[in-house]
Amino acid sequence: MYERKVLPNLNCGLDLIGEVLYGKWKIRLLWFINQGHQRPSELQRKIPDATRRVLNIQLKELEDHDLITKKIYPVVPPKVEYSLTEFGQTLMPVIATLGNWGDTHEAHLRSVILKRLNAERE
Amino acid sequence: MYERKVLPNLNCGLDLIGEVLYGKWKIRLLWFINQGHQRPSELQRKIPDATRRVLNIQLKELEDHDLITKKIYPVVPPKVEYSLTEFGQTLMPVIATLGNWGDTHEAHLRSVILKRLNAERE
DNA sequence: TCGGATAGGGATAAACTTTTCCCCTATTGC
DNA sequence: GCAATAGGGGAAAAGTTTATCCCTATCCGA
Q1: What's the mean pLDDT when you consider all of chain A?
Q2: Residue closest to A65 by CA, chosen among B122, B27, B18, B117
Q3: Where in the numbering of this chain does the HTH hxlR-type domain appear (chains A, B) (predicted)?
């Protein structure tokens, strides 16, 4: 496991939420688990751009941060189900707020993001 | 300027907001600018852990994404002031929501984050 | 018996971000 | 002439995250 050399800032609420939500696929993972897609293979089909490896790593972090729980069924072939903890559920309205803002301003956001991307390749 | 090799996902609102808020100091920058700390040197005093270089880079990105504007006064010594655009202002309640969740769950968050950090160094 | 479904992990490479180091502009005041 | 002020940026190193590749194992169906 990679060991951090620089300690994170944990001064205020914004630092703290940043620390647990940080990771390319984490918000999506929480969102899909909340929608009832609980098994790893299902999540991977929902997020095809991520490799299985990264999803496992980020699921583990979410679990360590008490946002989801992992239930392993001792059957063959293996079966695993993730679900939100109570704590994780309190985060859903916050994620909804983020998504709503993005949806509301979708056209403008897409425009400014693409403009900047293209400028990079000038 | 660094040129990305992997294009970002821009499928949904969550992707879009992630794209503009991504950056270690951006949320803090927006927050302090909103509170009236508009000059670069002032922002740097408020965020002493960041170097001036990074702040400049991230301020530029915020500007490119139409969240803030930069006004340069042609005086000596130079004077620069940042302020939120109208668009940037719509983001403030969203950031407040993030901060509130973090503040509400501060104790628990700090606990799970530190537990994971220590486990890394096991 | 082979292929695919289930789940997982180590090692290493590539991508990306942030920091560090050193440099620059121009004027005012001593 | 030189320091202080208030702003900025290029290049390279360090830090961190994500991707790629190749393994483990069992069972089911063709």
Answers
A1: 92
A2: B117
A3: 12-110
